[in-house]
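Hey, sorry to bother you again with one of my protein questions. I've been staring at a protein lately and its backbone has me curious. I owe you a coffee for this, so here goes:
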Amino acid sequence: MDTPTLIALLHGPDQPGLVARVSGWIFARGGNILHADQHRDMQAGIFFQRVEWVPTGATGVAEREAADFLAFADSLGMQARVLVSSRRARIAVFVSKANHCFHDLILRWKAGDFSGDLVAIVGNHTDLAEAARGYGLPFHHIPVTAETKAEAEARQLALVREVGADLIVLARYMQVLSADFLAKVDRPVINIHHSFLPAFAGGKPYHQAHARGVKLIGATAHYATRDLDEGPIINQDVARVTHRHDVDDLIRKGRDLEKTVLAQAVRWHLEGRVLVYGNKTVVFD
């Protein structure tokens, strides 16, 4: 079995010697650094780093070293998160009726594009139930209405914990998650919004864009927060449009953007490339 790798993401007040101290800590324990990247926010004076390394090959050392690194980062006054490559993230995908992001995520997962596993499809409609089961994935129908929203979200929370999901992906899930749900779920939620945020937040963004006669449309993958469509942005892309394109054309073009933008955001998250601070992200390539 290959030796697991460790990926650390850390950030905090900039100070002299941080790169040397981190690399020295890894070297002193016999580790071999595979990749390292860092960034300094000049305005805020904050240091960011992503470092990936192979620890010594002793059994169980990766898990112990991950815990030790967190303590080390704390001694530097840094906040840190450490991923162990042998621990594949478990992903729950929330859907409604739209199927393009749903199919795209599953096909990419089956092709081995993600360092994580889809473990459940959760839908507030049953339109994608048969397709999910055709892929060999369990489909959980939890209908949501204004009257039953609290009860439905309680069932969703219980399901997420039951399947051990580490990440929730909203694949054009056409429901707004409540602040209460997001506070209780205690794991990242990635949403795909069909506009180039912060433009055209909320409902029917392609209709809004067409009404404004824009020349670019876009898609945005972001972490969901209690403030609708305002969470930290992970990935965005755009496509050119003209006066000749009607709303249906915008929707069609937008679907391609939504698929690729969401898939890339999920991939970056699973690979430990996204560091969130405040309402922004640093994405290490």
